[in-house]
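INFO  loader      accepted 1 record
INFO  loader      residues=195
INFO  predictor   begin
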Amino acid sequence: MRHPLQRGFSLIEVSIVTAIILLIAVIGVPAVTAYVVENKVPRVAEELQRFVLRLKVGAQGAGPMPYASVQTGVLAEAMRTSGVLTVNGSAGMGGSAVVAHGLGGAGEGGNGVVTVQPVDGGAAFSLTLSNVNRAACPALPSILQRLAETVRIETSRGGGYAKNDRGTVPLAYSAITAQNLCNAGDDNLFEFTFR
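INFO  predictor   done
INFO  writer      dumping tokens
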């Protein structure tokens, strides 16, 4: 029993308030993360679409293997002034530039980054986004599939194609398939192939 002049909270009251705050944090943080990722998807996709279109336009008339020298450094230089993608490191000769997408992962060491590499000896190229949050699915593949020949999604559970124009039996893009291939958390890898 409190003395009439004592003021303050009892240990039980403080414990109850602390438990309520922790519960709100546990429920709220993932929801906020998903909301932030969902809002970034259109801007990230637009930046990557512009990059892909610039490469395609630049490759016109460049022979059968126009993308043989395409690598992540080319993307890094194109995104150096981007307000959406983050570029760390040098893309010059021998440089090791890292392009972080901000849709999950830490943005370093292959975690949460975008990589570019030639495919089929340089006849095509791929954009790969590692450690993408499920909140980006199916919006990100739905936007980029318009330019891509293939859309492959991989997780720790396995993976598959949401679109494959290169298969013996072409597979048209399916947002439902993309959504079903995605895993909870930052466990999704998206690979888009362009020709």
